[in-house]
Specification:
The chain is mainly β. The chain is built from no helices and eleven strands.
Length: 126
C-alpha cells in the first residue's frame, strides 16, 4: 500500500522559505501523479501544485505561481515543494497526496487522490 510522509513544515517569517518533502513508500510510484494540497482553518482543501510521475509536467495554483516549485527525486522516491517568498496567507496544513490513476496534473480534485499523508503545519508569521 502506498504510504506518504510529509516533513519540513514549521514557522517562518513573511518573505522566508521552506522546503516540504513527501517520502513515498510501499511501492515505487512509476506512473500517476503526486500533488500538494493545503487547508487553512475554516477553508476548503486547496490544490497547490502537482507533478506527473510519467512525464514530469507540473501544475501550480495561481496563488503560488512564481513562488513555489515542485520537483521529484526518483532515486529517493521523494517529491519536494520549495516555497519561497512566503506570505501569511500561505499558512495552512500542507498535505501530500498521490494516485497512480491520475493522467493529467490539473485540475486537482482531492477525491481523485487515493493516498494521503498526515499533513505538516506551515505557519507564516512575524
Amino acid at each position: 500500500q502506498l504510504q506518504l510522509v510529509e516533513s519540513g513544515g514549521g514557522l517562518v517569517q513573511p518573505g522566508g522559505s521552506l522546503r516540504l518533502s513527501c517520502a513515498v513508500s510501499g511501492f515505487t510510484l512509476d506512473y500517476g501523479a503526486i500533488g500538494w494540497f493545503r487547508q487553512a482553518p475554516a477553508k476548503e482543501r486547496e490544490g497547490v501544485s502537482c507533478i506527473s510521475i510519467s512525464d514530469g509536467s507540473t501544475y501550480y495554483a495561481d496563488s503560488v505561481k512564481g513562488r513555489f516549485t515542485i520537483s521529484r527525486d526518483n532515486a529517493k522516491n521523494t517529491v519536494y515543494l520549495q516555497m519561497n517568498s512566503l506570505k501569511p496567507e500561505d499558512t495552512a496544513v500542507y498535505y501530500c497526496a498521490a494516485d497512480r490513476g491520475i493522467t493529467t496534473v490539473q485540475p486537482m480534485w482531492p477525491a481523485d487522490f487515493g493516498s494521503w499523508g498526515q499533513g505538516t503545519q506551515v505557519t507564516v508569521s512575524s
